[in-house]
Structures are given as structure tokens and as C-alpha cells.
Amino acid sequence: MPRLHTGDVVRFWQAFDHLDEPDAGAHLERLYLTPGTPGLRAFLLGRIRSAPDLLGVLRNHRAFYESVRTQTLLSCARLSEEVETLRHHLGTHLPEALDREVYVVIGALNSGGTLGQEDGTPFAVIGLEFFSGGPHAQTGSLNDWQRRTLRTPDALPGVIAHELVHTLQPLHPFMTGGRQPTLLEAILAEGTADYLGELLSGQNLNADVHAHGRAHEATLRERLRRDVESGGRAQDWLYQGNDAQHEPADLGYFMGARIVQAYHARHANRPDMLRELLHRPLTDATGFTHDSGYFD
């Protein structure tokens, strides 16, 4: 079983209880951020950022956080049981994932998951607030993207599978800050995690994006082909948050998954195909896409 770490969630709520005090930021730092796990430290970068930043988010969205408190603690208590089926599938198809660490944290309503590294080994981090939705959740302060991204706890196996696939992908320079990914590399990185994550967990992490993508696939495929050929930007297809206009954000997840699916269908009889799908999209993005036949 991937090793699950949920202690950050308990410490978060201990710090949250000091939200009304004048030195609330100091309590966040002392009780939550400073003693945090490697997963929480990874989430600080570009997400939580700092105690003052997190304090501002908590005060602006206090009703939401208060409404999901009980659910986050229940999820932590039940997580090992909830991901048992995923554990079985990983053991059968990608047993190396069973040695990965999975850290569960509470973030600043801007990310449902990411990767970190410790001693050169990648690990997964899950932003639990995005997987604590349901009728109890008070979403009045959330923006449109946050509301669309919010999932119920039963989506946790899917996001864990998605992030674990990322931990098994080759660490190329663009994944470790050495350079920016090309558009094709970026959508294949995410699309592979979506595709294999769904195969392993039975859940599509980005179901709304995929539904829109299927309804408009011909138009999206032609637009993506033009963007790839012209050196288009990854941010036009991924990580757009609430900035997407006239269509769902992050359609690159769907497009990448469709390229990977097309490759898998065309070469399904190759031995050790799942590991080929893990590695070749990032080691040879152009050749992989050509051999998928997706744009033919």
C-alpha cells in the first residue's frame, strides 16, 4: 500500500482553532507549517506560500473550511479502507507505486494535488479541502473554478491514482524546474496521469472536462494540432484556474488522455504497455504522438 500520511490535517485544525486570535498567523506557522511533513513543505511552494497568505484565505473562506472540517477528519480515518481497491490494482499492474509516499494536507483552495521530492524520490500530495464536498459544504465564497473543482470524498482514490502515476513518470528537466515544458510534453504528462489513473482506480478525476472535450473533440483536436505546430503555450490548455474563458479550464488533461488512449489502442499488444505509457510520452513526446495516430 502506498504509505499514507494524514497528520498535517490534524495539525491544521489545531491551528485553525486560533483563527480569531490577534496572532493567528503565528499559530498557523507554529502548529501547522513549521512541524509539517515533507508533503506540506512541498505544498508551500506556489500554493500555500506563507502563513499570512494562508490566513487570508482561511478568513475569506471561513464558512467553507468550517463546513468541511468533520468530513476531512472522517476521510483521514477511512482513507486506507477507501483506497483498498486501488492498492490491489497497483499491486497487479504497477507494484512500484506501492512504495511511494502520499501526503494529505489542507491547502489554500488553489490545488487538489501535486508532487514533491525527498532524497530524489517523488511523492504525492493531496489538497484534501477539494475532496471534502457534498451537501454540507458551504461554497458561497468560492469562485466558479473552485466550485467546479470541488469533489466529494469518494473521488480520493482517483486523485491518489492520478498523482501516483506522476510519481512514476520520468523526471525530465521541465518537471524539476530546469525548463518549461513544451505544450505537447505538458498535456501528455497530465493526460497520461488521467488515463492511467482512471484505468487503475475506475475514476475519472476530470470528468467534467472530459465530458466537454468529448462533445467538442473535433474542434479541440484541430485547435491543438495548430497550437502544437506553432509552438503554442501550455498555459493555454492547462492550469488556468478561474481564468478560462467560454469553456472549462484545463482541457489539456482531456486532449492528452485522448492521445494516450489512441496510442494504447493502436499498440495494445506490446509487452509491458503500461510502463511504455508511463515513459515514452515524456521521453519522446513528438514520436509518441505521431505513433498514436490521433491527428491523422
Task: Explain how this protein is built.
- Residues 155-268 form the DUF2268 domain.
- The protein is of the alpha/beta class and 296 residues long.
- It has 2 domains: 3-168, no CATH class; 173-292, no CATH class.
- Helices cover 56% and strands 7% of the residues.
- It contains 14 helices and 4 strands.
- The protein has helices spanning 7-16, 24-33, 38-48, 51-60, 62-82, 84-93, 144-149, 156-168, 183-201, 207-215, 217-229, 251-266, 273-283, 285-292, and strands at 3-5, 101-105, 113-118, 121-127.
- A 4-stranded mixed sheet has the order 1-2-4-3, with helices on both faces.
- β3 (113-118) and β4 (121-127) form a beta hairpin.
- α9 packs across α12 (251-266) and α13 packs across α14 (285-292).
Largest sheet composition: 4 strands, mixed
- Residues in helix, %: 55-70%
Distance between the termini: 41 Å
Average of pLDDT:
93
| Strand portion | 5-15%
Q: What's the arrangement of strands in the largest beta sheet?
A: 1-2-4-3
Q: What's the total helix number?
A: 14
Let me know the number of strands.
4
Order of helices and strands: EHHHHHHEEEHHHHHHHH
The chain-level structural class is alpha/beta
Low-confidence stretches: none
* Tally of structural domains: 2
* Inertia-based shape: globular
Rg, Å, rounded:
19 Å
Domain DUF2268: 155-268
Protein name: DUF2268 domain-containing protein
Pfam families: DUF2268
InterPro entries: DUF2268 (IPR018728)
